[in-house]
Design a protein that fits this description.
328 residues; mainly alpha; two-stranded parallel ribbon; 13 helices; flat; transmembrane; membrane; ABC transporter permease
């Protein structure tokens, strides 16, 4: 149950953020329809041009493709900014449980994202019925898909914000998760190709196969930033929907169970520091090793890249994970 007082407090504190975000999300879809209609009218008014036709194609996504950016901004303001400014402690001291605080923040931001885009979808549908384009391509698939993907991005950033102590940590953690399947699958496989000389075809063939494989791309959240998902069946949207649920549960449990008094630290839960440091160093070793091999095409370049990767990975984790950031 979300307390009305807490809901009102969160709304008043972020009302301009919610209003501006809502206006953009509502206007994006109808604006795309109107923009195409204006282009069509300009074609009719130009005596030189012939064969003018009013069509709507959502294949490229256009302005709608940026909806996930709004989700990122909202999530960062609701958690990352408050932790960076040190105002989260005041919120936690209020007579509300941690579960109520997270639920209020999460679902208030989610409502702005989902309801605003749903209104925009309805307004665009009304415009289409009034303006009657000769052809409309992928309107429903893209409009609904953008809502799902925006919610996935929001849930991911909220989960990252529940785990971390400031904005930079929230954004870096979220970005790492968006490419994590590639880091866990693509990098080790490419290194095995180099070490055991089992590459088939071009250099680092597994990475190329990974990128070309629809399954691997669509289990990698960053793949939805691009528009390849539009050309797939509608069922592909089940994947980001399931991811959204997983991210929501991670965020809720993290906010509920992990300590919140370590403001300014990268991770709020101290036990995550060492495993994450090791993972970052391992990924840096593998990544720079591949880079060195790709540049020199020799095992010496591969080993040198691994050495520099280990050094760089260590310093990155030292100055991020283990260094406390001061409040703004």
């Amino acid at each position: 149950m979300i307390p009305r007082g807490l809901l009102y407090t969160e709304w008043k504190k972020n009302q301009w953020l919610f209003l501006l975000s809502g206006i953009f999300l509502i206007a994006a879809n109808p604006f795309m329809v109107y923009n195409n209609y204006s282009t069509y009218q300009g074609c009719l008014n130009n005596q030189v041009l012939q064969d003018c036709e009013f069509t709507l194609s959502y294949t490229n996504g256009s302005l709608l493709s940026l909806s996930w950016v709004v989700s990122v901004v909202i999530a960062v303001c609701l958690l990352g900014l408050e932790r960076t400014k040190g105002t989260m402690d005041a919120l936690l001291s209020m007579p509300y449980s941690r579960g109520q605080i997270f639920q209020t923040k999460f679902w208030l931001g989610a409502a702005v994202i989902i309801v605003s885009q749903a209104i925009g979808y309805g307004a665009a549908s009304l415009l289409i019925s009034l303006l009657k384009p000769s052809h409309t391509y992928d309107f429903d698939h893209v409009s609904i898909g953008v809502i799902v993907i925006s919610f996935m991005a929001y849930a991911l950033l909220m989960a990252a914000g529940a785990l971390t102590g400031h904005i930079f940590a929230q954004l870096l953690t979220a970005f790492t998760v968006t490419v994590l399947p590639f880091l866990l699958i693509g990098l080790p496989a490419a290194n095995l190709e180099v070490v055991f000389d089992i590459s088939v075809g071009n250099q680092f063939s597994f990475i190329s196969s990974y990128i070309e494989s629809r399954l691997f791309v669509f289990i990698t959240p960053i793949g939805y930033v691009f528009n390849d998902w539009i050309r797939e069946r509608d069922l592909v949207l089940i994947i980001p929907a399931v991811m959204s649920l997983v991210f929501y549960l991670i965020g809720y449990v993290s906010f509920l169970k992990h300590p919140n008094e370590r403001n300014g630290r990268f991770f709020l839960w101290r036990k995550l520091d060492r495993p994450v440091q090791i993972l970052v160093i391992v990924f840096a070793v593998m990544g720079f090793g591949l880079f060195g091999y790709g540049v020199t095409n020799t095992m010496f370049g591969y080993l040198a890249g691994m050495f520099f990767g280990a050094v760089i990975g260590f310093f990155i984790t030292y100055f991020t994970v283990y260094r406390k950031t001061k409040h703004m």
